[in-house]
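---------- Forwarded message ----------

FYI, see the Multifunctional fusion protein record below. Original note from H. follows.
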Amino acid sequence: MDKNQFLVSLFSIFLSSILTENYILSKFLGICPFLGVSKKLDTATGMSMAVIVVMFISTAVTFPIDQYLLKPYNMEYMQVVVFILIIASLVQLIETILKKSMPALYQALGIYLPLITTNCAVLGITQLVLTKNENYGQALVNAFGSGVGFLVAMVIFAGVRERTERNDFPKFMQGLPITLVSASLVAASFLGFAGMVDGMFGSVTLEAPKTSTIELSGSMQIIIPVVTVCVLGILFALILSVASTILAVPKDQKEEDIRAMLPGANCGACGFSGCDGYAAALAQGEAKPGLCAPGGAIVAKAIGDYLGVGGSADAQVAVVQCLGNDDNCTDKVVYEGISTCAAASLVSGGPTSCAYGCMGIGDCVNACQYDAIQVCNGAAVVDVTRCVGCTMCAQACPRHLIQMVPKKRQAVNRCSNCDKGAATTKVCKVGCIGCGKCAKVCPKEAITIENFNATVDPQKCVGCGLCTKECPRGCLTMMLVPKADTPANT
């Protein structure tokens, strides 16, 4: 292959890895960060830049190790173990460098930076380049192009998601359903590039790098792999140790003290990248003390007193706005598939007769770290004595049935159905029909009727209970907040 052909092959590989062989959109590698970190353009871009660096450096290190160590000794079966060791070490090294040189990006990436270690796209590129008969230079271009392809897919999808967030979709399509539909459309759009690269440059034939093999016999088949992993582990441990010493960031005692006050749930309800990010923002005066939902008023006051600014936070609890248990609402089909609400909601709008109702599979239960929510008789129920208001259950519900309300005595509409009354009564015995009787008797005008459904303003509601007595369907209930040692459900 002459120089011109080599350059053409590099450009062809680069374009292919971005467009026709995009690892996210064509091989579904890296789909977790693609769906999880693409809500905001700035976070998606920062994550993608880190992935580009990790992909490129990982390939630069793993390719020669495979060609000159693993293959010559017939140890290809060690690829996954060795490559994960290398990738994890490189991610830790990059994290150390970013924390020292680019603290703003480090804070923005937060918990997502260590998650690059488990990003299958990074491990995938280090292994797939070995199957393409590419030499070292071509493998590096492939890795860099794949990282750029990751960036392109993330930026495009982040723009799409920011646009969809501003649109008014039916309730059953909000959240994960419309996200997956949008992702499939973005992936399908890239099919338009199929054949473009070959059409521009023609078919490029790559010659496999030549390697000689050494046959190991007896105990050496065990000793050499063990020694290889140990040596690599010690080598990267030394590199990380030196890097952490040279690039050590002085600890902010204020940040450390505040971090110790936070509960460590890393739920993200505060709007920051976990408790570390929130503690850093508080220490720098960029956040208010009352944003930690799990910590509530106690943590807010402690942090406020420590910072000398005062702090308070109204305790909040989760409320499931659905009484569609097995006694009140039946299923239209028997669902047999992946046992998650998110998956069930994608099959004909879910198994329940009510398109807005609780499916009772328990995504919210799995998300709750405090055992504060359970599925009882086919519908989710919250124990207010255990709920800390972390919002994890609300984020997990694909139908957005779980709302956060102040922890006080108040009226709550336990129905989310927005259909007309006649349609609601056909699918649920206790569904809200939007009759408006509750709004008429409320002395504080705390209830309004929107989309054939009653909405209670918790700030105005004084818990008089008149609306619950007037409701003909029984979907308006009083939320009682007992003492912590008294078991009660909402």
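H. also flagged this: The chain has three domains: 3-246, 253-307, 316-479.
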